[in-house]
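Quick one from the shared queue. A colleague (R.T.) flagged Gliding motility associated protien GldN as missing a structural entry in our internal table.

Convert sequence to structure tokens.
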Amino acid sequence: MNRKKYLLLALLLTMVTAGGAQPPARRAEAAAKVRKTNANNLTLRAKLTFPTANPVSEDVVWRRDVYRELRLDDAANVGLAYPVVPTDGNMNLFTLLFKLMMAGPARGGVNVYQYRLDGQERFADDARIKPLTFLDDHHIFYEKTDKGVHIDNSDIPSAEVKRYYIKESAYYDQTTASFHRKVVALCPILERDDDFGHGTTSYPLFWVRYDDVAPALAKQRVRTSALNQAETMSLADFFTLHLYRGKIYKTDNLLGQTRPSLGNDSTLTQEQRHIEQEIATFESRIWGDPARKDSVDSMAAQQQGTAKASRKREERKPVATPKRLRRGASQKAAGSTPARVSVRRERH
């Protein structure tokens, strides 16, 4: 009797083990799918320990915020647009932002916020965009499944994103006595043809905090050369090193008002150069004006330079040669000696 019980128990254990076991290939495939799905999702540890996600301090003695327009047809920014369709885990900037938006903060994603008519960013709860509302507003195809919303990679309109707005802060941190330039926010711009084919219409999609997506940007690679495919770096390094190029289209003045445009193109270009020069001048003169010297050594060097200049001026004065002196002396002698008179006698 006991022997039958042992046999029955062994048979049950064998059946449970066989039913619960999975082939190694199937387990590996499931694990790979999970890793691929969570490849760009942000873990809590990544959000807390990412080294470059330092927010701009409010306790600064100098700060200038500017808004730039990055065109993806510019050679410096073209790497942000490729690949158009994700390939082998690589994706362009908009596809990455889109997937983070769809995931949401609860699943390792981020929140995105409305683009207002004045172009200002506002990171508040009432300005957050719901993913499904975003899909419906911009006519992006999706399907609902038991596991959630499914969007095919080919339906993500990354090819229609031609430009980006970025907010950049240049500031001097008195705590560390250092000057910084940091990207604060990103805004992709969708361009679509009009219904009647008369042109294109631009749709700024949303604002997203740079610090929220910085850990995900560190995982994605971007090509920085059109000739060398091996020359790549992370998207985070691309923005941290300021390898992008874009014109300033707006800035904040002391009254809190914005200047989105300044008349014709020549006036706007002149104002852009003026703002760039202001920031560069402040950065170069943090430790004083290099043109003004106030130390004892610099004053001595300045006096020495003045003495050299005076000696050079004296050397440039004309000096009379001996030949000129003899000529002048002979002319003087000829002028002071009376004329000689000779008398000739005639014979008679």
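The CA atoms of residues 103 and 146 lie 16 Å apart.
Residues 265-284 form the longest helix (20 residues).
Added to the table.
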